[in-house]
Design goal:
Length: 308
């Protein structure tokens, strides 16, 4: 017969060997967002509907179809949204600036002009398995300058996949854009527009964050160069962290030009900096980007290890 004291002793021996299950990635969707978590920690949120913050801004700045927040493994929020200086910039987002569509000039970047709108349309799939975590969604680029009613100019598919590699979050984002009808869309020559990253508002403070290219150029010297990658990093809540954006080498006009803002925490990959191009009805404009999100500091070797 086993005595009660023996049971207590046995339990005290066994308990130290009980460990929690390792954290895993999972993706889930509700009516307003798609979220990816690693264990209990939020990795990113994709916004299907206007956020609560949208209601605190002019209605013209309301936006869907973008990622915010994007977090580091420790939970620090890398991205910014509806910043007072640029309320039209939203986390990780895609928007063209100067365009020509059926003789009109819709603009999808500067929302205050009310000339164009990018919106979430539908979810194509949500993946949450040991093999793959992420989601596919569709967006619509509406021309708001059409006389009768907003007219769709582009349909865009985002494919987002997330991995955890050596303590970093690795987010792969593929964008495929096609015309919504028989009319082409011309992307005019301009000094910004495309796939963009808006950083946390804390990085607005002077010298709070640095932006540096793969060639080691800062935000002034590196503006409108064609780097292999761009890193934005600094202190958030007194701890170092950051994000590296690595465009795919097969992207159109690779390596694409980058707009690095001289003082604001944002940058954008802009393939129209020196000459325009046209998205034709029988072609898809496909571009892919890898985002390495980290705590602490990463150097060139770590970035190269995660390159495409």
């Amino acid at each position: 017969m086993i005595k009660a004291s023996s049971i207590v002793l046995l339990a005290s021996v066994l308990i130290p060997f009980v460990s929690a299950a390792p954290a895993t990635l999972r993706c889930h969707e509700n009516d307003t967002v798609i979220e990816i978590h690693f264990g209990e920690n939020l990795v990113l949120r994709y916004n299907k509907a206007p956020t609560a913050e949208a209601a605190t801004n002019e209605a013209v700045y309301s936006r869907t179809g973008y990622i915010h927040p994007l977090c580091t493994p420790s939970g620090r929020v890398i991205t910014g949204d509806y910043a007072a200086d640029h309320p039209h910039q939203h986390g990780i987002f895609f928007a063209w600036t100067k365009t020509d569509f059926e003789g009109r000039s819709p603009e999808f970047w500067n929302q205050k002009l009310a000339a164009g709108r990018v919106s979430y349309v539908k979810t194509l799939q949500v993946l949450s398995s040991p093999e793959e975590v992420g989601f596919d969604v569709e967006h619509r680029f509406d021309d708001l300058t059409a006389r009768e009613a907003p007219k769709p100019a582009l349909l865009e598919t985002w494919k987002v996949r997330v991995r955890v590699v050596e303590g970093y979050y690795v987010v792969d984002l593929s964008s495929s854009q096609r015309t919504a009808g028989a009319s082409p869309l011309t992307i005019e020559k301009y000094h910004y527009g495309g796939m963009a990253v808006r950083g946390n508002t804390q990085w607005l403070e002077e010298e709070a964050a640095s932006i540096v290219t793969s060639e080691g150029l800062d935000r002034i010297a590196g503006n409108h160069t064609r780097p292999a990658w761009v890193k934005m990093s600094g202190l958030l809540d007194e701890s170092p962290c950051g994000i590296v954006a690595i465009p795919h080498p097969a992207n159109f006009r690779s390596p694409q030009w980058v707009r690095l803002h001289p003082s604001k925490p944002y940058f954008v990959f802009s393939p129209m900096v020196e000459e325009p191009f046209v998205i034709q009805p029988d072609e898809a404009y496909v571009s892919k980007f890898r985002f390495l999100v980290f705590d602490g500091v990463v150097g060139e070797a770590e970035v190269k290890a995660q390159a495409w």
